[in-house]
Amino acid sequence: MATAADRPPTSHPSGSSDSSLVFIVDDDLSLRDALSSLLRSVGHKVEVFSSASDMLQSKLPDLVSSIVLDVRMPGLSGLDLQTGLADAGIRIPVIFMTGYGDIPMSVRAMKAGAIDFLTKPFRDQEILDAVALALDRDRKRRDEERAVADLKVSFESLTRRAASDGADYRWAHEQAGCWQNRNQRDHGQKPTVATS
After folding, report:
1. What is the pTM of this model?
2. Cα 81 to the chain's mean position, in Å?
């Protein structure tokens, strides 16, 4: 778990252009409302779901986000949702909460990439810190993916240009060889064989 010095700020200054979203998935209406109010009070945009299957069936926006997720819910569990999202290639950082935390469950969640595993009841600052860390990680992951994509585009552009330049070079080399041979013939010299 990160120390306080490792954690990013729990909110962005007002007027920030940060476009991020925190999903809350819990079957307990009062907890969903309390978490939603807390996260909105520090400037986060929030979307809530009452079940894991509701979230899996929804169209998730492509922006910096994190999920605050209850482990035990009717139907699909939080761990099932984490697996389902990973299987769909959706890599949103997850913060688990549970009233019945056990070690094997928390180990499974963390191995699957969870940011934190909080036992209810938890302090407000614990969830705020975990959300800030999760959003920061997702932001960095997206920045890295964007940088890699930009590098691939640049590389492809250079590869195409090099291939084009190579063809232009070969044509120019062949033309120079033809000119050189013609010039040598015109001056009574034996033409050279161009090698390329």
Report:
1. 0.70
2. 18
